[in-house]
């Protein structure tokens, strides 16, 4: 596979997507925040002093999806049509984050979905670090994408 963000001299540049067809594009990404079981219980009981952890993580993820070109070099600013962040407790000791980002544009939204998942996870860490500095953010991954020339991608169990 050829890297497309390098010019003829091997220098990084922003790819010209102006000639590509506008299509519906969807990307789904996920991340996992591992924590002490007691930390998850505090979150679920609403006893984290900084407030509603899941609501804050959802808002942070959505905001991150919208700001991806400001955070990741060479990403195009994309007019997103939606960004949804689902935050699900995984008893006894984790929180799963699943992000779905959509647009109708000439380039995909994989980076927006991955950025949203990572920022939502970091928000959970930030809100809970006073009670559990040993939390671990793991399993950041693209689950699926559709639209565009490269076609469909669906993560398999073995990946």
Automatic annotation (TrEMBL):
Keywords: Lyase, Molybdenum cofactor biosynthesis. Signal peptide: none annotated. Substrate binds at residues 74-76, 111-112. Pfam families: MoaC. InterPro entries: MoaC, MoaC_bact/euk, MoaC_sf, MoCo_biosynth_MoaA/MoaC, Mopterin_CF_biosynth-C_dom. Catalyzes the conversion of (8S)-3',8-cyclo-7,8-dihydroguanosine 5'-triphosphate to cyclic pyranopterin monophosphate (cPMP). Belongs to the MoaC family. This is Cyclic pyranopterin monophosphate synthase. The lineage of its organism: Bacteria, Bacillati, Chloroflexota, Anaerolineae, Anaerolineales. The gene is moaC.
């Amino acid at each position: 596979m050829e890297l497309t963000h390098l010019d003829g001299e091997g220098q990084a540049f922003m790819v010209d997507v102006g000639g590509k067809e506008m299509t519906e594009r969807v990307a789904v990404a996920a991340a996992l925040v591992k924590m002490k079981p007691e930390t998850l219980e505090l979150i679920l009981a609403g006893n984290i002093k900084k407030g509603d952890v899941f609501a804050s993580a959802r808002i942070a993820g959505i905001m991150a999806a919208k700001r991806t070109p400001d955070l990741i070099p060479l990403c195009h600013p994309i007019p997103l049509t939606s960004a949804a962040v689902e935050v699900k407790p995984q008893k006894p000791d984790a929180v799963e984050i699943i992000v779905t980002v959509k647009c109708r544009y000439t380039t995909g939204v994989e980076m927006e979905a991955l950025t949203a998942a990572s920022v939502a996870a970091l928000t959970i860490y930030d809100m809970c670090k006073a009670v559990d500095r040993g939390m671990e953010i793991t399993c950041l991954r693209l689950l699926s994408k559709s639209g565009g020339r490269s076609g469909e991608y669906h993560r398999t169990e073995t990946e």
